[in-house]
Amino acid sequence: MGCCNRRCGLIAGAVFGAVVAILGGVLIPLGNSIIEGTVEKEAVIEKGTTAYDNWVSAGPGVYRQFWLFDVKNPVEVLQHGAIPVVIEKGPYTYKTRYLPKEDITFNNNFTASFLLPAGAIFEPSMSVGPEEDNVTSLNLAVAGAYSLVPKELHIFLEKAINSSKSSLFQHRTVKEILWGYKDPMLNSLVGLFAPYNGTYDGKYNVYTGKDDITKVGVIDRWRGYRTLPFWNDKYCDMLNGTDASSFPPFVDKKKPLYFFSSDICRSVSASYLESLDLKGIEVYRFTLHPNTLASPNVNPDNKCYCRDPVVTMNCTMAGVLDISSCQDRKPIYISLPHFLYGSPSLFENVKGLGPSEEHHFTYLDVEPTTGFTLRFAKRIQVNMMYGPSKIIKVLKKVKNYTIFPVIWLNETAVLDDETADMFKKELISRIQMLEIIQQVLLGVGVSLFVLCLTIYCVVRSRDGHKLF
């Protein structure tokens, strides 16, 4: 009778272990389903969700650091046709994107529209000097007028330059170059970002994800356009992805992330580089591919971005993007800082540049479960083009069309410690706890099953031998 009870107990233990193991195994897909359901619910852009609270607010501090290119030999360039030599001066740091979205409207087609207000507050403690620091920089009005005024009218432009005592280069403060000054030749406000404070980016129209979570945050319209009006090409005018502040949840590292940047008037993609730990949270780092600004002979998709075959050497120049079509025809070219991945000819016309992948590449650190961007660095350079002229005196010594660097900027943000702790408490810790429970149940169940079954076999074998 004792043997029977012992065997029955061992069988019961094995059965119990199997049940526990099965429960742990069942919890894996069930737990994943619970996690996915919770994340999908909280990722929808609607009042009451985590995504809405983050989306509507200004979020963590976004800063723009500016480095200005100071021309060291302006006299030699004007009088002898020397190659300009520049040295970067900065950073001069401003807090931006500190204002919440405005005019938020939820539409019947599962989209939400809003305006993104622009503002900039100088941060002296994060800067190398005051906004009043002086820089010798390219004359924005002269460079702009060179392209905007037809060549047959350059004689009148020459008179305007002379009468206003303007030149190819000018001495201005950092504040003036960035945010504007009254130009003596044009008698109007001129500045790289003028006007800025009090203006808006948008209107944006994005999907809320209410009907399809894979579309949450994806841009439906920008300024009323479903396709961009700048490039006259179906491919280049595509409005792809989000605004890069977040992406649909459950990010797949094998697939690129698409986002639209109004600063460069086009959509781009980023590819997975590596996984990192950010304040105890695993993030996927995505970066722009070097071919993003490659010449069309390397990346044929970029053919429709070539606007001026003369300046770009029959569209063979790499590393720059002519955005004059979205800047009222002003000869503005966007590049990565210091012409990173740019053609050699860019460095032949301007000296003093030193591109570095470490300091000049753009990246996004995305939490893969939620799709939230927790840290980013968007780095771009603003350049203007000028060229030779037989009429305009300050350009007579210029030998080639020159894409001249004016400033480069690093727009960056990272989640603060308080938000990181909340994120870990509300999401990461729950996922980890569920995974621990799954593993414990599976481990204990399998161990108990194997142990009881092994002892049962040993006992049965020993009792069997006793019968003989």
Please provide a brief summary of the model.
The protein contains nine helices and 19 strands. It has helices at residues 2-43, 50-56, 74-80, 140-148, 154-163, 174-179, 344-349, 357-360, 417-466; strands spanning 62-71, 86-96, 102-106, 111-117, 120-122, 134-138, 169-173, 181-183, 188-190, 200-207, 219-222, 257-261, 266-278, 281-288, 320-322, 332-335, 363-366, 373-386, 402-414.
Give structural notes.
The chain has 468 residues and is of the alpha+beta class. The protein is built from nine helices and 19 strands. The chain has helices at 2-43, 50-56, 74-80, 140-148, 154-163, 174-179, 344-349, 357-360, 417-466, and strands spanning 62-71, 86-96, 102-106, 111-117, 120-122, 134-138, 169-173, 181-183, 188-190, 200-207, 219-222, 257-261, 266-278, 281-288, 320-322, 332-335, 363-366, 373-386, 402-414. Strands 1, 2, 5, 12, 13, 14, 15, 16, 17, 18 and 19 form an eleven-stranded antiparallel sheet that branches. The model is unreliable at 17-21 and 23-27 (pLDDT under 50).
